[in-house]
Amino acid sequence: MRFHGRMPPPPPAHLQMVEGSDPEFSDDENSPLNQDIYGGSRRSVQETKAWDVFRTLPPSTSSLSEDNQKFLEITIKFLKVFTYLLTFGVVLTSGVITKGLVLLMTSQLKNTKKLPICAKNLNGLSNEKDYVATIPEEENVVWAWVLLFCFIVPELGTWFRSTRMCVFKSWKKPPFGDFFWVLLFETLHTVGTGLLVYLVLPDLDVIKGAMLTNCVAFIPGLFGLLSRTRKESRVALKVMMDLLALACQLTGFVVWPIVEYGKDPNGWRIWLIPLAILLTSFGWWENYVDKHSKFSLIKYYGGIKERLWRTRYFCYIFVSLWKCLVFFTVMLSAMSTRLQEFSTIFELRKAFSVHSINVTEVRETLPGHTVPDFPTVAPFENTVPIMSSHGTPVYVFLIQVLTAWLCYIFGKFACKICIQGFSFAFPVNLTIPVSISLLITACGLRFDTACSFSVIPEYLFWECKNGDILNDFLNNDYAWVWLFWLLSQTWITLHIWTPKCERLASTEKLFVTPMYNSLLIDQSLALNRRRDDEGDVKTEDLNLNPDDHENEVSQYYETISIHTDSSNNNTSKIKSSDHIIRIYATATMWHENEEEMMEMLKSILRMDEDQSARRVAQKYLKVVDLDYYEFETHIFFDDAFEISDDNEDENVVNQFVKLLVNLMDDAATHVHQTNIRIRPPKKFPTPYGGRLVWTLPGKTKIVAHLKDKSKIRHKKRWSQVMYMYYLLGFKLMDQPISVDRKEVIAENTFLLTLDGDIDFAPSAVALLVDLMKKNTNLGAACGRIHPVGSGLMVWYQMFEYAIGHWLQKATEHMIGCVLCSPGCFSLFRGKALMDDNVMARYTTKSSQARHYVQYDQGEDRWLCTLLLQRGYRVEYSAASDAYTHAPEGFSEFYNQRRRWVPSTMANIMDLLQDYKKTIEVNDNISLPYISYQTMLMAGTILGPATIFLMLVGAFVAAFRIGNWLSFQYNIIPILLFMVTCFTLKSAWQIKIAYVLTAVYALVMIIVLVAMIINFAEEGWNTPSAIFFFATAGSFVITGILHPKELICLPCGLVYYLVVPSMYLLLQIYSCFNLNNVSWGTREVATKSKKKTREELEAERKAAEEAKKMKKKDGLLAFLHKDQMDNDEGSIEFSLAGLFKIMCCIHEKPNDDRQQLASIASSLESLKKRFETIESHMGLPPAGRRRSSHQPRSSLRGDGVSVISEHAGDDYSDSESEKSGPKEERDDLVNPYWMEDKALKRGEVDYMPGAEVQFFKDLIEKYLYPLIKNGTEQRKMEGDLKELRNIAVFSFTMMNAIFVLIVFLLQLNKDTIHINWPLGVKTNITFDEATSEVLISQEYLQLEPIGLVFVFFFALILVIQFVAMLFHRFGTISHILASTELTCCNKKAEDATEDAFIQKNAVDIVRQLQRLKGIDGDYDSDSVQGGQLGRRKTIHNLERHRQKKQAIGTLDVAFKKRFFSISAEAAENGLETETPVLGNMRRLSMRRETIKALAERRETVVQERRQSKMQTMGAKKPRTRTSIASEADNQRVFTPTGGNINDAYESDTDNYGIPPSVRSALRFARTEENVIYKP
Predict the structure, then answer these.
(1) Which pLDDT value is given to residue 26?
(2) pTM (two decimals)
(3) 277, 806, 963, 1280: which sits with the fewest CB atoms below 10 Å from its CB?
């Protein structure tokens, strides 16, 4: 076999394997850091010339999303501290008040209760005497009913929530067995609570009663013990603690019965304590059972618990009402034992009304138990009736209900924003100790003097002991036993101290049952808070080596655990790692400029840096990051190719692709704040054009798909179809894994849709992911889009976007669903897009006129409409900020809105027309929401008429002219503009609109003056004044509630000035240009290929034919008759084309055309003869000859290996290529565009055969280029015009009718009007003739339709404002949940630095992986802007010249710093042992943190050494199992000569052997598979 090509040279000496290194366990630390990025022997760094050492340093920050708003950050942190304290205070205070009021009410149930009272404020009683009140049965009855009402209120809340969920959302009927057990346990709990409240607590003093409430956790403790498994850590210790806690709870069953035994002969109720607290504890059974328990009964209960996720609300519709009935029955039964007449319990009117209470005088007892003499002065037991206080039970009831609700709401709020430990668990556990302390104090004060508490009625107080209350509590009440009860409850509810739920978790994820038990509020909150038993994703489950591809599947779908299927027999088992979030950033690009591309690339690089930090933190610091995600970027370039300047038969990438390639290094330099260079992109030929793949410093990839519109359908919607089918169809559904795993992966796969000019931060994406985690039915989520740019049009859009997000999107989010999640920055759930009637329907080709408007002009809105119609929810996060470039020119803005306005209305109309089905399918869309959208649609349609009427009225008020004259002045320009939109081209329409906009801006100033005059004359309480100030005030308040966006408020002035243009002219322009379906923005001239003779001749004939048809169809065709255009006369006269007079007519000479045609025919015949001669001689055709100096081979879809070009070719033969024979080309092997020097000399690679076939099939079925013939084109244009005409007629007629009705009513408002009740003018007239004073009232007269419309807009404004307030609260909660307080992360005395690293691992890695300063310098004083006199400019330039240009990866930078940390140095206060650690102080690391990192580093090294020893002699594992020794680290990371690149790590999938050696070995192994051309 002959070889036309060279074998790769042997690797250079510095790439040979280091002697003594073990490639089996290298973990890439032995890989040289200066390997050649081109795969050859050439060094990757070009020497810097001495005369070219001057630098341009990267700016510190230049993106709006990076702006370091210190003031805002500090404000948020102060707000979070305030929230910590406020929530803690509210939960504790409300819990204590609720508990105290419940004990106060139960204290009033004891029959014939006697209580010392204060006579100071009672009439008829002497202040010098002592009195005792005897509580009558009416008091027992009223407080029994109040307790019942307190229990019922949260149960009715549960019923209402359950009913709402079942009516407006989907529900599932439970099995009878599940319903029976739920009903049984809830019945037992209700009976136990009733016995405790009505029979047990009234006969105990209040201190004992409060202590006893800590003993209601026996069943949860028992079920929790039986649910433990051997898989738990320290299970033996936990079981022992469970047994101790249960023993402590059991003592509560018997302590008080034993202590009180024999003291009261009527105290039989004390023996109900064991039964009451045991039954009460059944209420929280569900939270403590587990289906993994080894006990079959607990396992069965665990199954019920899992099924209740779907059936709970159906169950509790009936269970909540049943519990109310059971509690009522227990109340009747219990009170029958306390009342003399059972019928008294039903005398509610008497009980709740004012009734008498008997007060008896008692004599003071002297020492020696004697009473004083003088019985006439102080008669014994003199009974005096006093009246009860009216309304006291109602007030107590309202306060108890309110405080219980506040305790629950603020406790839930604390859990949602992740401050549960301090603001929920702590106050809930403190409730009983604080309550007991306050009750002991209150009882002591009351015992000293009965007049201690004057805020409550004298006859109301808790049941207290007499004497020394505190001493009695400590000695006789067994306070030490209560301490064990409290500790046992704390142990059983220990889970509330260590929550694991996500931020802003739903109520269902936070609490087991929807509401709470208000009679046992603190126990209810603690025991009802869900235990987070879901297994964490372990670090070993993650694919922390993104370059490891162990099989063909991982090449298609780069997942964290997919390769484990091959070694697992149970392939259908869902793995914990399948729940890892996968984010595909999908950007669509077309003609973005340099600034726009730069912002998008910087955003992607920030995501890359963030993902790398999270991956490295788990890999080396061994932490579990709940926010970890996998990330990959796909850019879809529309129309990416143009005709080559050198060869018109070939295509090359256009200027925008070249710009993207050139900007990659600049973007990385900006983000990483040091001059670095990204590896040149891999180039792939593809069926749709081409592909470029970059590997970023954080090891994530950017894949640019270059679309050739001659091979695949272009425009944005089809790019979206392309990436949906590629990422969700091919890379997920087409993979050999189980359906169950696909289901889970699809639910956790998200598409981050981006525009090519978007600017965002990783935190913005994290906030959207939080929303997705919170609700699995969420199909899409969008952030707050901020327009950027300069000029008046951008100022207008700043305010427009602001109120659109502040009010409209917030309202849609709160009362229904957001209708449009913009494609510039939104997160879509893969599973939702894959649903029926979403992805498949999104591929619908526009075949009707309305399709072009709804489908192609507003593709993002249509996609959201499809999601809504399938039942998914779309939400809006105001805290997720993104910045996009807005149109700065008037023409570009008008063309953009010309697309948006019709598509918005078309999609909303589609939703409204199908509203019944949508309401049935979508749980989040209701009839009120549809009504709200209908009102908005009506306001949009009639908006032009409203603005017109406003202008008419303003002219009347400002210029003191009549209504008809004002009407004429305003209607004329509108009619002229409408005629213009029908007759002139779009460019002229926009120019006229531009002029009218300027005129109307001046008019709006007049309108403002007119309104002020009108308000002054008619008063400030007229409807128009109220509406004006309400609107302006709502905008101002809304802006203040968005302090970060307060700058948008001044732009409201520009918004006001252009209201007529945007709501009148723009609506007319959009409607009248409905037939124009071009994109309208970012249009640039494309390079066209030189046309052949045949194409020119065809175009000429078509033009002549069109000219003839135009003349035949014209109104003056009769003047032309059948006259031929090739006739001419010696003398001709014509007048504007109306007629032509020709004298001496003769035919035009055609000599030139005939000669050209003859020459062309001769050349064609010569060409055919030459081709015939060449074929007989055996020569290949000239156009198909192969270049002899560029041997090629390819890697085709069949897997045959091919050699790519030599990396050393410098394209120096470009001139000879032009003149030499052409090379035979295959678009899937060696397309011409890959040789473009602008794409840099990156590696050439080829897609796998399956992927090539996928794209071929996809193009054939859905994405073949749309080539319409002339007939179809003309038909579609006609259909669009017809649609335009219908829309124009309907739009015009509706506005005209509205204007006519309102205007005529305004003219005749003396006859038909409504008198406005506010601002009535009173006229007083004195008639001298009759000496009478005449008083008359003058009302403001309003025409009814206009008033209705004002109230209509006012209603919309009120709805939006209220919804905005609720959404603001949700947004602030989201921000607080995402804000970490560094003060709370400081090392406590009992905490360890290891815990500090565990909590702050990602931030630590971010500092250690920084590429800036990896070479030992931090750009010194020049970057820091040091003093001019101290700058060492020349030294810095010389040092920069001597070092290389880094090609950096973040994990190498991390490892270089991490493995250089020395525990001894940190202990001794030495900050450096190596040059790398010389600047650790600049990384803001504390000495203790560095020491802890050193200990963590030693642990990692030891683990990998043990792994190395265990695997000695075994087959090399496919995953990284060890790390190089410290000596190896020192050898690798210490410079040994030459310019070693310290910031690069290979991204290949082999370990140990240097890449060039691996390439040579791989070449040798695959020689037999290489195809060579002779």
Answers:
(1) 37
(2) 0.77
(3) 963
